[in-house]
Design a protein that fits this description.
Blueprint: H1 2-40, H2 43-72, H3 78-109, H4 122-141, H5 149-152
Helix pairs in contact: 2-3, 2-4, 3-4
Length: 156
C-alpha cells in the first residue's frame, strides 16, 4: 500500500511540474508577445533585427575559423599547418566578402527575405561546412593517435 502511495505521489508531482512548466511557458510567451509587438513595429528595431540576422552566418563561421586557426599553430606537420592556414584565411576572406556584399544589397535594395542574401545560400553554407570538415579530417589523419583512457593507466 505504501509503495502505491509513493508511486501516485511521484506521478502527481511530475504531472504538476509538467503542467506548471507548460503554463509558465504560455504566460512567458504571452507577455513577450504583448511587449514585443509594439517594439517590432518600430523601424529602427526592424532594421536592427535584419542586421543581426544577416550577421549570424558571418559571426558563426568567423568564430569557428578563428578557433581552428589558433588550434592549427600546434599541429605537428608543417605542410598541413600551411595548407590549413591558407584555407582558413581564404574561407575567412570569402566569408567577409559575402558579408559586405550582403550589407550593400541590404541597404541598396532593402531585401527583407532571408533567401535574398548570399550568406544564407545553400552553396555558401555547404562550401564552408565541407571545408571545415575536410581540414579537420586532414589534421586528424596527420596527428599521432591519442592514448585511450583504458590504456593510460597501463602505460604508467
Amino acid at each position: 500500500m505504501n509503495r502505491n502511495v509513493n508511486i501516485l505521489a511521484l506521478f502527481g508531482t511530475w504531472l504538476l511540474v509538467f503542467t506548471g512548466f507548460v503554463l509558465s511557458m504560455f504566460v512567458l510567451f504571452l507577455i513577450m508577445k504583448l511587449i514585443f509587438i509594439p517594439v517590432f513595429e518600430q523601424r529602427w528595431f526592424e532594421l536592427l533585427f535584419y542586421i543581426a540576422m544577416v550577421s549570424v552566418p558571418f559571426v558563426l563561421f568567423e568564430f569557428v575559423y578563428i578557433v581552428f586557426f589558433r588550434r592549427t599553430k600546434n599541429h605537428p606537420s608543417p605542410a598541413i599547418r600551411l595548407i590549413s592556414k591558407f584555407l582558413f584565411v581564404a574561407g575567412m576572406s570569402y566569408c567577409l566578402l559575402i558579408y559586405i556584399l550582403d550589407f550593400i544589397s541590404f541597404f541598396k535594395k532593402e531585401y527583407y527575405a532571408i533567401t535574398e542574401f548570399r550568406s544564407f545560400d545553400l552553396r555558401f553554407l555547404c562550401v564552408h561546412i565541407f571545408g571545415l570538415f575536410a581540414i579537420a579530417i586532414l589534421q586528424a589523419l596527420t596527428t599521432e593517435k591519442e592514448i585511450d583512457w583504458t590504456q593510460k593507466d597501463v602505460n604508467r
